[in-house]
Amino acid sequence: MLQILGKASSINVRKVLWACTELGIAFEREDWGSGFRSTFSPQFLALNPNAMVPVIKDGDFVLWESNSILRYLANQYHGQHLYPAEPRVRARVDQWMDWQATDLNKSWTYPFLSLVRHSPDHQDPEALAAACRQWTTNLQILDRQLESTGAYVSGQDFSLADIAIGLSVNRWFETPLEHPDFAAVRAYYERLTEREGFVIHGRNGTP
């Protein structure tokens, strides 16, 4: 059975849990990370030298990096409906997954640590304001894309990109900052709520 190492409140672990729901994959999960077993233990570092969750073990196969895990699960467990084989369609999914992992995540890190985690190292007003502006800019980019597709991030069909970005949208709405009225993003958020995996692992009140 697939093993998932990481606490369920982690946004990146939740990606994997949601994907498993979409794909009907049975799994066992172990709590690792802050408040649980240390990811800096020799046992965990042997699996992921970055000391980050999630990590999966599928038999003797070990993999880390959440978006790489999503791609693996779709490829291994008949998830072509989430990660199409046609090169240009797949490239669009990859494009938005990569955008989420770099541009989008980078923009919300400081505001999240400041406003949700209340980190004393992230309380500079100018840095917070600049990061919030960039986060808003990225949500505007997403809003325009969703206006264009009228459905999901990479097109008309739900894909792996929506698992990655849907959880980041959850983080946007759950972080106490000014939220401009991005109507397409709001409609998208409600659309995701029709999916069991998002209800359980995405819109669960844990940013």
TrEMBL record:
What residue stretches are annotated with the GST C-terminal domain?
86-207
What keywords are assigned to this protein? Answer: Transferase
One of its Pfam families is GST_N_3
UniProt key word Lyase: no
For this chain, the family text in UniProt reads: Belongs to the GST superfamily.
Q: Which residues belong to any copy of the GST N-terminal domain?
A: 1-81
Q: Which GO terms describe its molecular function?
A: transferase activity
Q: What is this protein's name?
A: Glutathione S-transferase
Keyword Transferase recorded = yes
